[in-house]
């Protein structure tokens, strides 16, 4: 594929440049000594090795022949250097071509090639590397181009949008070296037909930062024997039918299999979350420790005014279900990490949202009454990412809104040095605050849990 070719070329160029930088002299000598001289079996320092034709009749080299021999050598060297320059310039063109993709993917206008070289009415193959590249990328993912191409508004200038075009978004990391191949594969489909069975590919791209994914105009596959979901409130605590899930991307092919996982010694996220009658049924119903608050007590902190909110990384949606039973509407973000989490949440009758923790929250400023997160906001998240996330949570919380950090885990030292200062920077009032040891991986690690309910200041700015 042209893409891979360009990247390879880019790498080879780097190697060549590094080689040039550190070994310029060697390169020069290498070039002058190589093919022409070796073929003639010569070394410059040893006049005995000068070919017979170059020597005087008596076998001694005259000054003249030696000088002309040197000139020939220099001419050969020049020729070789010229050739090398040509190769370098070819590599440079390939590099530019690969930069072209990054640029077009990252440009504000999106993935949009200059039409004067993408369509050549004559149909003749394009000649520069950049043109070849643009041609093949476009051919390989015409749908990507169609999707991201800036579109002119048919009714002209829109005052509301302050624009006369519309641009469809795509995550900037979609153009990463690591994602390009997957992205082009993802965008290879039969337009207006049935999409490939590639939920796994979409998931991989998303968690690798290609978020949002481009839209596609094909029909997403659905399970072949989908049943109407159960009515509320039965749906809240019922495991749905296996028929309602498209199982292709997952190791398990049934809910029974998902629920068996906890008996095996395998590590999976949320290993017992699909088992609704077990631990899930107990969660947030009672205040059992300094770390475990009940939904009732938290709602009583603000009687009646907690109505809508967000649960970040909410597993199978049990927090939203419990809140729904209190007439509070919670949207649950979840990924489908080797299990149909989003489908399960939806079949229970609450709203799933398929976004990673890296994505800007799709809510407007000062809107939500509560944001909750259990286990997910923790020290596995790079501190920089976490800080942006906390500020984003602050943004979407309304004044006086609640941030419920539920079992945030880290090492005691990190809590003191990194996370406490980070949380305190938000300037929230601590309505509940508990720290306790986290022992599941042994006491030596000095891991702790923090559970807190924090209230956003009523005014700011
Ligand atoms: C070296 O090259 C130049 C031009 O490329 C040519 O005119 C000249 O005759 C060459 N000299 C020898 C010794 O080959
Ligand atoms: C498109 O490419 C052509 C030829 O390379 C160039 O002359 C022209 O300015 C480019 N147009 C835009 C909008 O970049
Ligand atoms: C299109 O093809 C013609 C004819 O082969 C060629 O002369 C021209 O340079 C091409 N134009 C572009 C933009 O590649
Ligand atoms: C939820 O709302 C319904 C309908 O308005 C009401 O009957 C019920 O008592 C409410 N439940 C709670 C826990 O407030």
Keywords summarizing the entry:
single chain; 461 residues; alpha/beta; Rossmann fold; 3 domains; seven-stranded mixed sheet; two-stranded antiparallel sheet; 39% helix; 12% strand; globular; disordered N terminus; binds 2-acetamido-2-deoxy-beta-D-glucopyranose; transferase; transmembrane; transmembrane helix
Quickly describe the structure:
The protein has 16 helices and 9 strands. With 461 residues, it is α/β, with parallel strands linked by helices.
State the domain count: 3
Bound molecules: 2-acetamido-2-deoxy-beta-D-glucopyranose
- Lateral strand order in the biggest sheet: 5-4-3-6-7-9-8
* Residues in helix, %: 25-40%
Sequence stretches where pLDDT stays below 50 over 5 or more residues: 1-8, 13-59, 108-122, 129-134
Shape by Cα distribution: globular
H/E series? HHHHHHHEEHHHHHEHEHEEHEHEE
Q: Could you name the CATH class of the largest domain?
A: Alpha Beta
Subcellular location: Endomembrane system; Membrane
Pfam family, one: Methyltransf_29
GO molecular function, one term: methyltransferase activity
Protein name: Methyltransferase type 11 domain-containing protein
């Amino acid at each position: 594929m042209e893409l891979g070719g360009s990247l390879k070329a880019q790498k080879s160029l780097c190697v060549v440049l590094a080689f040039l930088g550190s070994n310029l002299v060697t390169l020069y000598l290498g070039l002058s000594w190589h093919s022409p001289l070796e073929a003639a079996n010569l070394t410059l320092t040893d006049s005995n090795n000068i070919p017979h034709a170059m020597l005087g009749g008596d076998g001694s080299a005259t000054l003249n022949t030696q000088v002309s021999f040197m000139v020939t050598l220099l001419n050969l060297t020049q020729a070789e250097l010229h050739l090398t320059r040509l190769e370098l310039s070819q590599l440079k063109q390939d590099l530019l071509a690969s930069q072209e993709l990054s640029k077009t993917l990252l440009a504000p206008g999106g993935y949009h090639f200059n039409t004067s070289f993408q369509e050549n009415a004559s149909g003749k193959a394009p000649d520069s590397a950049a043109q070849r590249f643009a041609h093949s990328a476009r051919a390989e993912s015409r749908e990507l181009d169609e999707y991201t191409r800036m579109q002119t508004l048919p009714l002209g200038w829109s005052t509301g949008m302050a624009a006369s075009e519309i641009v469809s978004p795509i995550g900037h990391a979609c153009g990463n070296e690591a994602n390009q191949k997957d992205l082009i594969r993802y965008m290879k489909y039969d337009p207006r037909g049935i999409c490939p069975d590639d939920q796994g590919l979409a998931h991989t791209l998303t968690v690798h930062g290609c978020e949002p994914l481009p839209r596609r105009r094909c029909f997403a596959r659905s399970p072949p024997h989908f049943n109407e979901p159960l009515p509320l409130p039965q749906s809240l605590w019922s495991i749905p039918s296996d028929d309602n899930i498209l199982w292709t991307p997952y190791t398990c092919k049934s809910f029974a299999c998902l629920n068996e996982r906890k008996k095996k010694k395998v590590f999976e996220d949320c290993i017992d979350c699909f088992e609704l009658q077990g631990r899930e049924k107990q969660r947030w119903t009672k205040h059992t420790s300094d770390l475990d608050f009940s939904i009732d007590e938290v709602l009583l902190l603000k009687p009646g005014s907690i109505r809508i909110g967000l649960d970040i990384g909410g597993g199978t949606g049990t927090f939203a279900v419990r809140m729904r039973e209190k007439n509070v509407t919670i949207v649950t973000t979840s990924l489908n990490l080797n299990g149909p989490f989003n489908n399960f949440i939806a079949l229970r009758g609450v709203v799933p949202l398929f976004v990673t923790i890296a994505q800007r929250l799709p809510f407007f400023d000062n809107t939500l009454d509560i944001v909750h997160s259990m286990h997910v906001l923790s020290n596995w998240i790079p501190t920089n990412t976490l800080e942006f996330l906390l500020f984003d949570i602050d943004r979407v919380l309304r004044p006086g809104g609640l941030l419920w950090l539920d079992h945030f885990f880290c090492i005691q030292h990190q809590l003191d040095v990194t996370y406490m200062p980070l949380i305190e920077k938000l300037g929230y009032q601590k309505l509940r605050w508990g720290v306790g040891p986290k022992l599941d991986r042994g006491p030596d690690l000095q891991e702790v849990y923090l559970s807190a309910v924090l209230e956003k200041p009523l005014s700011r700015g």
